[in-house]
Amino acid sequence: HVNSGIRNEIPRGLVDGPVGSSNFQVVPESGNWTELSDSVLSFSSLACVAQIHAAAQIFVQNTFIDANTSSKAPAIQIAIQIDGTVIPETITGTTEPSQDQRTGAFAGARTLPLVTTAVLPLSAGAHRIAIVVQSVGYRKNIPSWVGTNELICLEMRT
């Protein structure tokens, strides 16, 4: 099963969003998981082991970042969600913000690719798998944008 959200535009400016940002999904800086609308797989399968691969190109507005505020920049995380549950082992970055200064991928550039993969058992029946994204850490009320993304699920049966 494969689902790709392919967006061919290349953002040129991120003051108010990427150029042509209507083709990008906005991720608010809320600390809540946002499902990528074009990276969802719905299917039925027999009981199996699934290899799930999720990747997304994130665009951020980072004009406020400098040497003195870099630790306060927002951080982005992606994860795999199965049947409405975010799988903790697939969350990029840390799941313990009280112990780690940076909780997700630090947006030191205007674009950053994020990838996560998991191999886990799936029960027989219908499943809904999605990529979810959240912005964590210091809040500046600056959204991120998701460009090209892909979700792949391989059913491995014996």
Write the layout of secondary structure elements.
Blueprint: E1 2-5, E2 25-27, E3 34-45, E4 48-60, E5 75-82, E6 85-86, E7 105-106, E8 111-122, E9 125-136, E10 144-156
Antiparallel strand pairs: 1-10, 2-10, 3-9, 4-8, 4-10, 5-6, 5-7, 5-9
Number-wise, the strands total 10
Structural class, from helix and strand content? mainly beta
* SSE ordering: EEEEEEEEEE
The fraction of residues in strands falls at over 45%
Q: Compute the number of helices.
A: 0
Q: Overall 3D geometry?
A: elongated
**Uncertain runs:** 10-20, 63-71
Describe the structure.
The protein has 158 residues and is an all-beta fold. Helix content is 0%, strand content 51%. The protein contains no helices and ten strands. It has strands at 2-5, 25-27, 34-45, 48-60, 75-82, 85-86, 105-106, 111-122, 125-136, 144-156. The strands form two sheets. Strands 1, 2, 4, 8 and 10 form a five-stranded antiparallel β-sheet that branches. Strands 3, 5, 6, 7 and 9 form a five-stranded antiparallel β-sheet that branches. A hairpin with a 2-residue loop joins β5 (75-82) and β6 (85-86). The protein is elongated and about 50 Å long.
